[in-house]
TrEMBL record, chain A:
Keyword Ribosomal protein: no
The organism's taxonomic lineage, starting at the top: Bacteria, Bacillati, Actinomycetota, Actinomycetes, Micromonosporales
Transmembrane segments: 70-88, 108-129, 136-154, 166-183, 190-207, 213-231, 236-256, 268-288
Protein name per the record: Uncharacterized protein
Keyword Transmembrane recorded: yes
Top-rank lineage group of the source organism: Bacteria
Keywords: Membrane, Transmembrane, Transmembrane helix
From TrEMBL, chain B:
Family annotation (PANTHER family): PADR-FAMILY TRANSCRIPTIONAL REGULATOR
InterPro entries from the UniProt entry: Metal_resp_DNA-bind_regulator, Tscrpt_reg_PadR_N, WH-like_DNA-bd_sf, WH_DNA-bd_sf
Chain segments carrying region Disordered: 92-115
Start and end residues of each Transcription regulator PadR N-terminal domain: 8-81
SUPFAM superfamilies: Winged helix' DNA-binding domain
Pfam families named among the record's database cross-references: PadR
Listed name of the protein: Transcription regulator PadR N-terminal domain-containing protein
Source organism (scientific name): Rugosimonospora africana
Length: 294, 115
């Protein structure tokens, strides 16, 4: 029985990161076995659930600290996700333009070069902010936005805010303000943030699905973030920022001159975005406060 | 301060203890209310070590099992005492309150109003 239990606990301990396991693994295992052999053993299910949650928190870097530090860290992640999403969208445009030129399906104007330029500036911004160089990061976000606008210059300027891809970079710049002022610590693996580009392309809307079911993706992603906030309170705040970004383009439809273009479901969608953003912010704020207690 | 944290710190008042020692002492002191799961205990110990409220004082291998002993730091003791005083103050509001309703209900006695 004891050997079987030990094997089971050893398997579960693999959920912790290797470095943590090396430091703590033997000690945690000893405590688990001591507790199991005691007169008052904890229910196995409870021990397993606590181990899984604790391991996930260690592995996915839930930040400990004052509420202010956790909020700054959450805003930093939100900025990185917004930049990754904008970069993914520019990359999608660039790939589409290059593909069409190669296949000679369609000829693009010179301004289409703005798409790869925006994607490159986005990659540079992602790395700068990932490394904690916030001023440089915001400057690169500005550059990426200018390049993306140049690429979209075929569309009248007043029409662009209604595009799903318009708001990520301005919002990233706005959310970066507290980062530039307070300079939160950066993570050790800044390069890993580049993986967020294909990830956001996969789970958030891009130019390919602008008016289709892609509009519901931010809600699905925010719901996922809300679930993830059980492990890391920052996730709810990141989800809220993503929803605010999605709301802004939908809100632009409601502006004068765009009512005609508004499809029937948009007011409902906008309300859903805003309601979900409000819920996410509240959940995030409560969780950050709860976790900050000793 | 959360209740489990309070009893983890209280468990370490007398002497340094290892993981299971902390769990059983916290359960005993809280009269069975705080039953820490191992994963929860180590998450709390990581946090408390980071905040310098507890520290590791000794490491041993007993019967082939690794044991690390934790003790309360001066900051930890201060935080624990501050929390105990806060709770005692809060408890006084109720325990030292003259209860007019109870005395009013006694048969054959007139109710006493607080001054």
């Amino acid at each position: 029985m004891s050997e079987r239990l030990e094997r089971r606990y050893r398997r579960l301990l693999r959920l912790y990161p290797k470095a943590y396991r090396r430091e703590r693994g033997a000690e945690i295992l000893a405590t688990l076995l001591d507790a199991a052999e005691s007169g008052h053993p904890r229910p196995l299910r409870r021990e397993v659930a606590a181990l899984v949650v604790s391991a996930m928190r260690v592995r996915f870097g839930a930040v400990a600290g004052s509420p202010g530090q956790v909020w700054l860290s959450a805003l930093r992640v939100a900025v990185l996700v917004l930049i990754a999403h904008a970069t993914a969208q520019s990359a999608v445009h660039a790939i589409r333009a290059v593909g069409a030129e190669i296949l000679m399906v369609r000829t693009y104007p010179l301004t289409a070069l703005g798409h790869p330029a925006a994607a490159l500036a986005g990659v540079a911004a992602l790395m700068a902010i990932g490394r904690g160089r916030y001023r440089l990061g915001v400057a690169l976000v500005g550059l990426a936005f200018a390049a993306a606008q140049w690429a979209m210059s075929w569309l009248p300027i007043e029409a662009r805010p209604a595009l799903g891809e318009f708001w990520q970079l301005p919002l990233a710049a706005a959310v970066s303000v507290p980062l530039v002022v307070c300079r939160p610590a950066s993570g050790r693996r800044a390069m890993a943030w580049l993986l967020a580009i294909p990830l956001t392309a996969a789970v958030l809307p891009t130019a390919f699905d602008e008016v289709g079911w892609g509009l519901y993706l931010p809600l699905a992603v925010a719901a996922g973030c809300l679930a993830w906030s059980a492990l890391d309170a920052r996730a709810a705040i990141v989800g809220a920022v993503l929803l605010i970004g999605a709301s802004m383009s939908t809100l632009s439809y409601v502006l004068p001159g765009w009512v005609d273009a508004m499809s029937g479901e948009n007011p409902v969608l906008l309300s859903a975005y805003l309601a979900a953003a409000a819920v996410s912010v509240c959940v995030g704020a409560v969780l950050v406060r709860l976790r900050a207690r000793t | 301060m959360r209740e489990p944290t309070y009893f983890i710190l209280a468990a370490l008042q007398d002497q340094p203890l290892h993981g299971y020692g902390i769990m059983s002492r916290a359960e005993e002191l809280s009269r069975g209310r705080v039953k820490l799961a191992t994963g929860t205990l180590y998450a709390a110990l990581d946090r408390l070590t980071g905040e310098r409220l507890v520290r590791v004082v000794d490491e041993q291998v007993v019967n082939g099992r690794a044991r690390r002993y934790y003790e309360l730091t001066a900051t930890g003791l201060e935080a624990l005492r501050a929390e105990a005083e806060r709770m005692a103050e809060a408890a006084k509001l109720v325990t030292e309150h003259p209860n007019p309703r109870r005395s009013a209900r006694r048969p054959g006695q007139p109710g006493v109003m607080p001054a």
